[in-house]
Amino acid sequence: MKTYKDLMFHQSYVNGEWKENKADKIDVNNPADGSIVGQVDNSNVTTMKEAIDAAHLAFPIWKRKTAKDRSIILMKWFDLIMENKEAIAHIMALESGKPLEECKGEIGYGASFIQWFAEQAKRNNGTVIPGFTEDRRISVIR
């Protein structure tokens, strides 16, 4: 089981690599007591462009995956969040000043959307939508 310190990173994750902007960091303060919890990169334009380009290149690969494969990937993401719920909630409590129990609830609630989309990913079927006139229908093919 990971601790919250195992999950705290200050770099940007871009295209499978950690990128660090050593020149420009932003302090993350605990609003409850003003202490500095950590630092994060203030990513520069170059890093942001790399991230956008990497996402653009990755989309065709994702697009070709089957509905089942997409669902499996999303469920793995959901499972990782739930396995690390305590540590993630601890980080959230530190950076937001909220009570730990409230943060745990938010982690579960947020993760439930990923779980829902994982289930929906398997239902990659079309839809018939009423048209703009009574003699027409719109078919959506996914």
What are the SSEs and their pairings?
Elements: E1 12-14, E2 17-19, E3 25-29, E4 36-41, H1 45-64, H2 67-83, H3 85-96, H4 100-121, E5 127-130, E6 137-140
Antiparallel strand pairs: 1-2, 3-4, 5-6
Helix pairs in contact: 2-4, 3-4
What is the H/E order?
A: EEEEHHHHEE
Structural class by sheet pairing and helices: alpha+beta
| Overall spatial form | extended
How much of the sequence is in beta strands? Answer: 15-25%
Low-confidence stretches: none
* Terminal-residue CA separation: 39 Å
Total of DSSP H or I helical runs spanning 4+ residues: 4
Mean pLDDT value = 90
Characterise this structure.
- The protein is built from 4 helices and 6 strands.
- The chain is α+β, with helices and mostly antiparallel strands.
- The strands form 3 sheets. Strands 1-2 form a two-stranded antiparallel sheet. Strands 3-4 form a two-stranded antiparallel ribbon.
- 4% of the residues are buried.
